Prior knowledge:
about 15% strand, 7 strands, 2 domains, Rossmann fold, 9 helices
Amino acid sequence: MKIIGLTGSIGMGKTTTANMFADLGCRVFDADAAVHKLYAKGGKAVPLIRAVFPDAIKDGAVHRPSLAKHMRADPLNLKVLESFIHPWVGEMRAEFLAAAKADDIKAAVFDVPLLFETGGDKHVDATVVVSAPPEVQRARVMARDGMTEELFQSLLSRQLPDSEKRARADYIISTGEGLASAREQVQTVLGNILTKA
């Protein structure tokens, strides 16, 4: 089974691209969804976050906007939180991988926003970066609910620049030319990865 690391900065179309891989028979592990599970009611991260930031828990789940305020207030908070969250996500990913192998899936896709930043690229057979022109990215992100210029810049500052991600990628999917073009690129990339020894 091939393991593909899929990444891309905010607003590049990574989730849509991950769905295209899934449509072609790949099993997708969504790192963001794994974190959501940890933050949900009854999730593993809830007691930990309640102990440090009680105001970030609402109705038994982590209230992400409240937590984000604490993270922005002191960058060290984020480092400490990640030191717990990343290993837990790693455990979930290992379980996902074992299940995909048992089901004889041809390729597993790790959909990870911070793939290069966390060193996750060292544990995959190929890296795929989803990219789009800066003006397309900006338009997509600024159209999101509650997005501000300050928040956009804060999110970008935590991610490697798009140019650096593209330079480190084995493959690039460009999403600026519409869905049909992106789907064609995904088919080609997957075909290349599966036929490589």
